[in-house]
Every structure is written in C-alpha cells, then in structure tokens.
C-alpha cells in the first residue's frame, strides 16, 4: 500500500467497526462475479436465466428510497447549510456517529472500495474510497463507478481522496444467522461534512443512501468543492445532438423527478437524419478549459435508473441497455427467470413473486414504484464514446424543465445569463400521484438540486451568477412537455417528437432561427417549429394573471433565503412583476 494516509484511515475505521476481516476490492470482473455469486448462495440475489450476467434482489420494505429527513449537512454554521438542508452541529454528529459505528461490523467483512468519479486521470475527476460492510454496495459500485486497483494506482502515495464510511449497522454475534437485507429501521443517518470532505452513512442499504459516490459525493460534497474552486456540480444529463449535416452540439439538462430526464438522455429521434448520443443521464460536472469554454464530464460509469414505466415504447434504448450485466432491485420476478414491472408490457407475465417476495394479488404493485436497475453505461446503444474523454465535452446549451399543465410554454430561451439563472432558480413542477402531497400542487425544485445542494441554496444561486461574469456562457432554455388541454389530455406528443424542440434549440444556439418576446422569455418565431395555428396557441399562450401569481409565489419562496438571495435575482423578479 503506497498511500500511508489511506492505510491509516482504513486501520482506524477497522478499529472502530471491528469487522471479522478486511477486503480490498480490486475491481476485476472476476471479483464482481464472485461477490454476486456469494449473494446468490446466501439467497440475497437470484441469477436471471433470461439476462446474462444479471441478478434480481429485493430490499426490506422499510429500506426502499433515499431518506431526505435523515440526510444531514454538518457545516460549521447552520447558516452555511441554508434553509433547504437539515443541519447538525459537526462535533455533536461525530459523537453520535462514533457511538453508532462502534462495533457495527462485527461478524461481517469490511470492504474497501477505491473508486473514481469520472475518467481516471482526468483533471475533472475526483477519487473517493468507500468502506462498507455490504456486498450489495460492492456489486453496485462496480457498475456505477470506475473502481479498484487502477484507482489506487492513480491515487499514488499522497493523492487526495474523499473518505466515505458506510455500514448497514447490523453486527452479527458468533453463530447468528444473517437476514437477506440487513438495515436499521430507526437509526438511518446520511451525513456530509463539507469542510472536512467526509461522508458517513449508517443504517440503510438502499442505493442513494449507500452508494456514496452518487448523490453524496458527486452532488452534495462536489457542489461545495465546485463553489470553492469555481466549477459546477449539477443534477444534469448530458447529450450530444448531431444534425443531418454532421454538426455536433452538447447540451446539459436538469429536470425534477417524473419529468422525463432519463427518456431525454436516451431519446430516439423521429426527425430524419438527426442523431442523439448519451454522455450521462443524471450528473454533470462542468469546468472551464484553458480557452474559457465550459466543458462537462459524466462522473458516473453506470445508470441507476427507475424501472417502472420504462418500456420499448417509452425508452427502447434503456431496454436494450439492461438486457445483460444488470442488477434489478425491487422489481417482480417471473416464473421463467426474468423481471417485470408496471409499464414494461401491456400484459403481466406469470410471476414467481412480487418485490415483497409474495404471490401477486390483484390491485397491488408487482414492483415498487422506486424499483431500480443498475447497469453499465457502455451497454447503452447510443452511448457517446466521449463519456471517457478526460477533457470532457463542450457545453453549448443548458436546459431546465418541469411538469406544468397550464403555465409554462413548450419551450423558451432566457434573455441573458442572469435571466437563465433566474429560470433555473424558478424551476417547479406539479406533484403527480406518485409523490407525497396534493396532486397538481406546485413544488419548487431549483435547478432540480433541492435535495442535493451541499450548502446554502441562496449562495448556490449566487455561484451560478458569478460563473457567468466575464465569460461566454451557454444559452439557457426551459422546456415543458406536459401542457394539457381543457379536458386534461397532453397537447404535445413527447418522446421522440421532443427532437423537434431540440432541433430548434440547436438552431437557436447559432441564432439560425428567430424568436419572439413573451413575458417569460424568448419563444420560437412562428413557422420555426412546424405547428398548426391551433397547436401553437395551445402550446405557447401564457396567461398573464397566472404568470403574475407564479411570480408572487416565487417572491414568497425566495424570502426563505434572506440576505443570501443574490440581488440580481431580486431585480429580475421585481422587473418581471412590474412588466406583468
């Protein structure tokens, strides 16, 4: 072991957690196959007959999603965490965690997982080391990150890494039989120390709480790093658009949940000659290169996607991606050794069991609404080889979006960079039946980062504004695929037809097509989107009274950030209120 600091940390954590043994993960395919087989032997995984190298598993029903109310930002002062995060005093939290982790791995193996977020060797990447007592975590980290010996080699003798500590929190006494999905129902902690750049997770084995390279490092810790060092860590997909003439542009896009993010990342265009390639479906890290161009990498190596609703109709590229080498969590298991979930096919096949390990009962869910697939990104038929480019890809445009039945038009462009930041800060979406709260109620989710920003979100808005000072920034757009008519039918067909809107954005970046002013921003000039007069009116009419109510709601929402809200956003809002 070249890195004495890493070795000392692992030794210290082993003394605290008291595992039976320590295993350093090497990241090989042989290791992955062995760990998966060990879980098959223990009854945790079921090997799928219909999908080579793939496995099915079910979590405990009490451990199925991210736990936002148990996610903490332990900055030095509460004000640094801001009103949208749960803050705890760092020293008090360390004492709590020390008590929880003491002896927590007795009877288990401590796995040491060196991993890299982004291409190994890239200036844009970050290295982490996760310690975990969960083989499920090891198997998923193998898919979601670049991990193992190659990362240790890149770390060298004195490289910087983010220490990530995880335990399911269920020690085993000698002779005690383990359960298939160990976790702590009443003691879950997902804790971030931004100044120390540390992550501690206890009591949950679920992906977003336990795969610490994902939301914890790649967004909450990375966003604080990004503010300090002048870059952006964002909850954004990255796609390449290629015109019939062979011209290429890259877009980054942020959407709240249930707004079609994964479908857009792997879109199958309906416009002849146009191509889309996926660089990433969830996270983008963006930095300026030496020539002042904003460039992005996808720090992940796999997809951790929501299964229900994914089908050959909604996302054929995703369906092709998960044909092999995939871990399925909380979907139904079929009699013939395959998986199934609601929306996958019109008819339900004969099931071995539901995600609850029980026979299917009519009216119940066969798969959990948050059921997941973990699969290698390189299996995606439209993956962009540039995903491995250490320099990243040049970002030409940024898109925000939400689910709005009435107000937001199909697409508009911001008038300036600061107005674009306002558009990102104003992102909101209507609740669906799948989310807690009243259906149709507006929920604010600025930049689609509400659960993931590692510091005060008012300061985060200010960081975005500062990033644009003196720089040539990408154009900013907003889309809304979800406008409805008077009886609740979607007006826009969506899916592959969204390529028509992306084509307009592509052409607007070069200012090849015209725009028209509206109270929300610049909308397409008539004739540039191939719409009938009736369609155009239905998709682009903005009710000024409704817009004024929206602005008043934003005024109230922004009040929570107090003096941390940038003056530029207050001015944008006040100007719009005066003009509406």
Write a brief structural summary:
The protein contains 16 helices and 31 strands.
- Envelope shape: globular
**Beta strand count:** 31
| C-alpha-based Rg, rounded | 24 Å
CATH structural architecture of the largest domain: Alpha-Beta Complex
Biggest pleated sheet: 9 strands, mixed
Quickly name the level 1 CATH class of the largest domain.
Alpha Beta
Look at the helices and sheets and give the structural class: alpha/beta
CATH topology of the largest domain: Phosphoenolpyruvate Carboxykinase, domain 3
Tally of alpha and pi helices: 16
Helix percent reads 25-40%
Q: What does the model show?
A:
The protein is of the alpha/beta class. It folds into 3 domains: 205 residues, Phosphoenolpyruvate Carboxykinase, domain 1 (3-Layer(aba) Sandwich), CATH 3.40.449; 261 residues, Phosphoenolpyruvate Carboxykinase, domain 3 (Alpha-Beta Complex), CATH 3.90.228.20; 78 residues, Phosphoenolpyruvate Carboxykinase, domain 2 (Beta Complex). It contains 16 helices and 31 strands. The strands form 7 sheets. Strands 1, 4, 5, 6, 7, 8, 9, 10 and 11 form a 9-stranded mixed sheet that branches. Strand 2 and strand 3 form a beta hairpin. The model has no long low-confidence stretch (mean pLDDT 96).
């Amino acid at each position: 072991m070249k890195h004495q600091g890493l070795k000392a940390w692992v030794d210290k954590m082993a003394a605290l957690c008291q595992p039976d043994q320590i295993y350093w993960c090497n990241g090989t395919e042989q290791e992955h196959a062995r760990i998966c087989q060990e879980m098959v032997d223990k009854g945790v995984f079921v090997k799928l007959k219909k999908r080579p190298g793939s496995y099915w598993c079910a979590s405990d029903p009490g451990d199925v999603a991210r736990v936002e109310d148990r996610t903490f930002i332990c900055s030095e002062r509460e004000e640094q965490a801001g009103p949208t995060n749960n803050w705890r005093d760092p020293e008090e939290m360390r004492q709590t965690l020390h008590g929880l982790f003491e002896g927590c791995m007795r009877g288990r193996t401590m796995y040491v997982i060196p991993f890299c977020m982004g291409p190994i060797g890239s200036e844009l990447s970050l290295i982490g080391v996760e310690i975990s007592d969960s083989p499920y975590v090891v198997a998923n980290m193998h898919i979601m990150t670049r991990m193992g010996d190659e990362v240790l080699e890149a770390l060298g003798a004195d490289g910087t890494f983010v220490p990530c500590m995880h335990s399911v929190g269920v020690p085993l006494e000698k002779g005690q039989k383990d359960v298939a999905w160990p976790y702590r129902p009443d003691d879950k902690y997902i804790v971030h120390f931004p100044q120390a750049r540390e992550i501690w997770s206890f009591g949950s084995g679920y992906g977003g709480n336990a795969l610490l390279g994902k939301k914890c490092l790649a967004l909450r810790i990375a966003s604080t790093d990004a503010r300090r060092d002048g870059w952006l860590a964002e909850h954004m997909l990255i796609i390449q658009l290629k015109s019939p003439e062979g011209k290429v542009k890259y877009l980054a896009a942020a959407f709240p949940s249930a707004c079609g993010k994964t479908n857009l990342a792997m879109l199958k265009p309906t416009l002849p000659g146009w191509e889309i390639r996926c660089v990433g479906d969830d996270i983008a890290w963006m930095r300026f290169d030496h020539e002042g161009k904003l460039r992005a990498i996808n720090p992940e190596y796999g997809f951790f996607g929501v299964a229900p609703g994914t089908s050959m109709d909604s996302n054929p590229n995703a369906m092709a991606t998960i044909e092999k080498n995939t871990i399925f969590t909380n979907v139904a298991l079929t009699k013939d050794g395959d998986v199934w979930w609601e929306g996958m096919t019109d008819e339900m096949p004969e099931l071995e069991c539901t995600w609850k390990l029980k026979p299917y009962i009519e009216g119940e869910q066969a798969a959990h609404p948050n059921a997941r697939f973990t699969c290698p990104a390189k299996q995606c038929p439209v993956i962009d080889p540039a995903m491995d480019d250490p320099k990243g890809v040049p970002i030409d445009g940024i898109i925000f979006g939400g689910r709005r039945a009435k107000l937001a038009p199909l697409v508009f462009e911001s008038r300036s960079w600061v107005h674009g930041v306002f558009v990102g800060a104003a992102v909101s979406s209507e609740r669906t039946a799948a989310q807690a709260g009243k259906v149709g109620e507006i929920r604010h989710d600025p930049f689609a980062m509400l659960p993931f920003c590692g510091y005060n979100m008012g300061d985060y808005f200010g960081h975005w504004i500062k990033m644009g000072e003196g720089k040539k920034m990408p154009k900013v757009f907003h889309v809304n695929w979800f406008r409805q008519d008077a009886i609740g039918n979607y007006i826009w067909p969506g899916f592959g037809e969204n390529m028509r809107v992306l084509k307009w954005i592509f052409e607007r970046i070069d200012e090849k097509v015209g725009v028209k002013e509206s109270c929300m921003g610049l909308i397409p000039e008539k004739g540039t989107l191939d719409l009938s007069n009736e369609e155009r009116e239905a998709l682009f009419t903005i009710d000024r009274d409704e817009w004024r109510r929206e602005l008043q709601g934003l005024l109230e929402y922004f009040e929570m950030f107090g003096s941390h809200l940038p003056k530029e956003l207050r001015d944008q809002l006040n100007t719009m209120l005066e003009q509406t």
